[in-house]
Design a protein that fits this description.
alpha+beta, Aminopeptidase, 27% strand, 151 residues, 5-stranded mixed sheet
């Protein structure tokens, strides 16, 4: 098992991400009556604009994890921030220290790109809060969701 971490373009990983996205969706989706329907054009356009950073974990050539960050200047302060859009590691690769190593890799790459703060989140269906705290993250905000329209 030769596991590697790298940054890739969204266009180069689109097909591979789709294979894992269904597993990811089944673990974290709050409203399962909304089917998974990824708008890949949004990600492609953000990638082309240089706004996203997409990091992957591969075992040989097989994608086994990904993390996507959207970077921007914070509108209230003078620093560059990265907001985590998604973090997923295939269940077979969890509990093997890949999560911590992968997160550290992502952070080191974001630092190289001038990012000073990372905002991330955890779902209640797959709560990774304790893992994130062990990696140095602190609670900053609480996110709530209210469904306004019945699907």
């Amino acid at each position: 098992m030769a596991v590697t971490y790298q940054q890739e373009s969204f266009i180069s990983v689109e097909n591979d991400v789709m294979k894992l996205a269904e597993i990811h969706y089944n673990e974290v989706a709050q409203f399962k009556d909304y089917p998974l329907n990824i708008d890949f054009n949004v990600y492609k356009n953000l990638d082309i604009a240089g706004i996203t950073s997409i990091y992957t974990i591969r075992d040989e050539l097989n994608l086994v994890g990904y993390s996507i960050y959207i970077t921007s200047k914070n509108p209230h302060y003078q620093f560059i921030q990265a907001c985590s859009d998604s973090l997923f590691i295939h269940p077979d690769y969890r509990k093997k220290n890949h999560g911590k190593k992968f997160l550290k890799y992502c952070e080191s790459q974001l630092i190289k790109n001038g990012v000073e703060f990372i905002y991330t989140h955890s779902t209640t269906r797959l709560d990774i809060t304790s893992f994130l705290k062990k990696c140095g993250y602190v609670e900053s905000e609480i996110t709530l969701v209210k469904r306004l329209k019945n699907g």
